[in-house]
């Protein structure tokens, strides 16, 4: 921004014919280098203050600003499932522990396993939160223990949220893997994954 100020002042010095430029008039009308320096310093401070506030307010101008994925916050629908059994409290506890919206995690478990603790998918995912064996090992949980399974599922979902910055992408990564989300730059164009995200988020 200092380069901008120097360029602006140089332009004013070179263009005394501008009738509406108080900056140019002040710089040109002064007969001494000392006065010009004082005027420049005054104008520089003024512009520095105004432009810096505008600069800070604009994320587009600031280098290194990380853009949120898709930049749209998603409202989480309420969990309205019929399951009210013993694992509901464990799922709520795991969600709260890892800072996940409770309704979101309950809807995930409903979609993943229908609250069946011994469910095994055709791909080999296990339990209430349908953890893959490799993922469970990395999380150091026993996927066949319902409470640990929920703990691992909540922790993994939060890891995906931290990685991608939105619950929509976190759910897509939970279902299709983080590599697929990175490859496609968003929710992968897989019918299963898109339906999965839509059923949990309601859109």
TrEMBL record:
It holds the Pfam family SLT. Belongs to the transglycosylase Slt family. Residues 92-189 form the Transglycosylase SLT domain. SUPFAM superfamilies: Lysozyme-like. Keywords: Signal. This is Transglycosylase-like protein with SLT domain. Residues 1-24 form the signal peptide. It comes from Litoreibacter meonggei.
């Amino acid at each position: 921004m200092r380069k901008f100020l120097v360029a602006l002042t140089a332009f004013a010095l070179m263009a005394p014919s501008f009738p509406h430029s108080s900056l140019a008039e002040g710089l040109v009308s002064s007969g001494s280098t000392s006065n010009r320096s004082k005027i420049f310093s005054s104008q520089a401070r003024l512009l520095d203050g105004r432009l810096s506030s505008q600069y800070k307010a604009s994320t587009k101008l600031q280098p290194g600003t990380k853009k949120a994925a898709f930049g749209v916050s998603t409202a989480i629908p309420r969990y309205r499932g019929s399951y009210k059994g013993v694992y509901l409290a464990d799922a709520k506890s795991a969600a709260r522990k890892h800072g996940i919206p409770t309704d979101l995690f309950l809807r995930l478990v409903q979609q993943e396993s229908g609250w069946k603790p011994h469910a095994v998918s055709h791909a080999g995912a296990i339990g209430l939160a349908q953890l893959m064996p490799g993922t469970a090992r990395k999380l150091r949980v026993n996927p066949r223990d319902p409470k640990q399974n929920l703990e691992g599922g909540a922790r993994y979902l939060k890891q995906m949220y931290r990685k991608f910055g939105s619950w929509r992408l976190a759910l897509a990564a939970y279902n299709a893997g983080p590599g697929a989300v990175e490859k496609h730059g968003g929710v992968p164009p897989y019918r299963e994954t898109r339906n999965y995200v839509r059923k949990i988020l309601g859109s």
